[in-house]
């Protein structure tokens, strides 16, 4: 498998400048070719081509085949499904109940439905009859919620009571009628479904140039990480940064500087990359991906989330998990 990668790498780079590439390979071996390709991934021109014919109405998305959007102002939950052309088509729209109180959820018991981007973590089918036949559990509070000091839990998408009466609001969950929750269950795969909760539906299209810039910046951050450029790497972090476990910006700088001093060779691969504008925000984006990291002293394969501010074509990471 690794040999195939190097063959493809060689062919791709050769197509750019065959003579220089062969000379570089002859003198320096495969390392410089790989470094060259890693640098190509940082270029906005590459990402402009990648995004040119993609459906980016929700952002740049590699890992979700279903998008659920909840518009709190119109009390609707809408399901979009990716078709064979990789476009998101409206599949179903359901009338929905949301929290009794208006605004974004801040704390336990405030009767507000959160505004944000969430995964569906599991389905519950054995529950109190008040919640209908089944419920989907969301990932509230997410990394950005915790960064902002929001708390609470138990935000679900669920049905309506089968044996009781209920008011036309919830304590913060999203509720749809029972035939609809069963319909939703038939039409989604939990681990491939994204939930976006908004105050109101946005009428503005997501700018592809912005997405290209953010993806270029993401891979520039990766480039400095792989090739041990600690100064460039840390420049991507905002002084407002707090890691998911509470590590402060100053402690994080010291921690990463110490690690970079090992000067280890690293293999870092990102896949299932998603870049999503945060609802009802002009400059906050959620970046998520599956990370494969390997060095002499440490290996990691798992999910990574960055919350970034995007201004002047630059990203600044404010939290990560």
Q: Can you tell me about this structure?
A:
The chain is α+β, with helices and mostly antiparallel strands and 321 residues long. The protein has helices spanning 2-16, 18-28, 30-40, 44-51, 143-147, 178-187, 208-226, 230-234, 249-260, and strands at 60-61, 66-71, 76-82, 88-95, 116-124, 135-138, 156-158, 174-175, 193-198, 267-277, 284-294, 299-311, 314-320. The protein folds into two domains: 41-55 and 206-320, Nuclear Transport Factor 2, Chain: A; 60-198, L,D-transpeptidase catalytic domain-like (Beta Barrel). The chain has nine helices and 13 strands. An eight-stranded mixed sheet has the order 4-3-2-9-5-6-7-8, covered by helices on one side. Strands 1-10-11-12-13 form a five-stranded antiparallel sheet. Helix 1 packs across helix 2, helix 2 packs across helix 3 and helix 4 packs across helix 7 (208-226). It is elongated. It starts with a helix and ends with a strand. The mean pLDDT is 92.
Cα radius of gyration in angstroms: 22 Å
Task: Tell me the helix content.
Answer: 25-40%
Structural class, by secondary structure, is: alpha+beta
Strand order in space, largest sheet: 4-3-2-9-5-6-7-8
Strand residues, percent = 25-35%
User: Any guess at the CATH architecture of the largest domain?
Assistant: Beta Barrel
Overall strand count:
13
CATH topology of the largest domain: L,D-transpeptidase catalytic domain-like
Which overall shape is indicated by the principal axes computed on the Cα atoms? elongated
* Major sheet details: 8 strands, mixed
CATH homologous superfamily designation of the largest domain: L,D-transpeptidase catalytic domain-like
Instruction: Summarize the helix and strand pattern as letters.
Output: HHHHEEEEEEHEEHEHHHEEEE
CATH class group of the largest domain? Mainly Beta
Instruction: Flag low-confidence runs.
Output: none
Overall average pLDDT: 92
What's the N-to-C terminus distance?
30 Å
Count of DSSP H/I helices: 9
Structural domain tally: 2
């Amino acid at each position: 498998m690794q040999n195939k990668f190097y063959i493809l790498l060689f062919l791709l780079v050769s197509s750019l400048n065959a003579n220089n590439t062969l000379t570089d390979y002859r003198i320096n071996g495969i390392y410089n070719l790989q470094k060259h390709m890693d640098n190509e991934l940082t270029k906005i021109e590459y990402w402009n081509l990648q995004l040119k014919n993609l459906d980016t109405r929700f952002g740049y998305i590699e890992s979700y085949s279903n998008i659920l959007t909840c518009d709190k102002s119109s009390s609707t939950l809408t399901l979009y499904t990716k078709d064979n052309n990789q476009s998101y088509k409206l599949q179903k729209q359901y009338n929905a109940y949301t929290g009794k109180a208006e605004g974004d959820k801040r704390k336990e018991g405030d009767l507000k439905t959160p505004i944000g981007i969430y995964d569906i973590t599991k389905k519950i089918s054995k529950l109190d009859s008040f919640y209908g036949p089944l419920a989907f559990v969301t990932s509230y509070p997410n990394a950005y919620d915790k960064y902002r000091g929001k708390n609470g839990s138990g935000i679900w998408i669920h049905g309506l009571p089968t044996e009781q009466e209920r008011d036309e609001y919830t304590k913060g969950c999203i509720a749809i009628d029972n035939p609809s929750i069963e319909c939703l269950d038939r039409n989604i795969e939990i681990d491939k479904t994204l939930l976006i909760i908004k105050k109101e539906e946005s009428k503005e299209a997501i700018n592809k140039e912005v997405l290209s810039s953010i993806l270029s910046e993401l891979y520039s951050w990766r480039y400095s990480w792989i090739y041990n450029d600690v100064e460039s790497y840390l420049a991507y972090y905002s002084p407002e940064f707090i890691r998911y476990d509470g590590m402060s910006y100053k402690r994080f700088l010291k921690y990463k500087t110490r690690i970079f001093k090992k000067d280890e060779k690293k293999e870092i691969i990102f896949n299932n990359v998603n870049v999503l504008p945060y609802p009802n925000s002009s400059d906050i984006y959620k970046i998520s991906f599956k990370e494969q990291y390997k060095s002499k002293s440490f290996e990691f394969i798992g999910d990574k989330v960055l919350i970034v501010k995007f201004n002047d074509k630059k990203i600044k990471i404010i939290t990560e998990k």
